[in-house]
What we know:
Layout: E1 13-17, E2 34-38, E3 41-43, E4 53-57, H1 61-70, E5 75-81, E6 86-95, H2 96-142, H3 148-158, H4 170-173, H5 177-191, H6 195-200, H7 205-225
Parallel strand pairs: 1-5
Antiparallel strand pairs: 1-2, 2-3, 4-6, 5-6
Helix pairs in contact: 1-2, 2-3, 2-5, 5-7
Pfam families: DUF2293
Protein name: DUF2293 domain-containing protein
InterPro entries: DUF2293 (IPR018744)
Amino acid sequence: MAHPATPLPRNGLLVFQRLKRRHCAECRTGPLQMLVLEDGAPRCLDCADLGHLVFLPRGDTALTRRAREESALSAVVVRFNRRKSRYERQGVLVEEAGLARAEERCLADAEARRRRRMRDARRRAQEDVRFVEAFAAEIRRLFPGCPADRAREIAMHASVRGSGRVGRSAAGRALSEVAVTSAIMASVRHVETPYDQLLMSGVPRHEARRRITAAVETTLRGWRTGVSEVG
């Protein structure tokens, strides 16, 4: 029954799953869903003293590893893949108590990962708040006439995590003047000029930008030379 390419485990027992319809050579029960080969003859799990084990399908590597660690007795379950002409692992047989202990360990790990994700999320949120404040402060330094609430609005929009906007670029993170000015120009273009309406009316983007260039420059010039407002 065993194929020459049978993947015998380095340590432990091997159980075959869903092979040809066979009966146990000892107790004659069958057909067997899982069997063990002893001297070439099939044995059911009970006759092979493995009937008390429970089947754990493959898929969760951590749970499988821990279940085997927690079980004094375990076996690897394989099935022959005719298309690939080889045996493939389907899971393991482990002690029920060992599986329960392994599940508890994995649940503890899952809770630890959940708490770590929460801590990381809080840390990122705090970092984002500090960065928005720093970005807004740099806007106000370069453009003192820009209202404080407007500067914060621009900073928040430009620095949304995962947005790909200028505030998340390397230059933006470094608060370079080019990046900060680019963020301000983009905001002014959409808020202080009819740029969006031009686009919606079918005006090509480059032509729309050309038409509102003077308005953008006027706003930036006023913010750059104006008196800082209390916001």
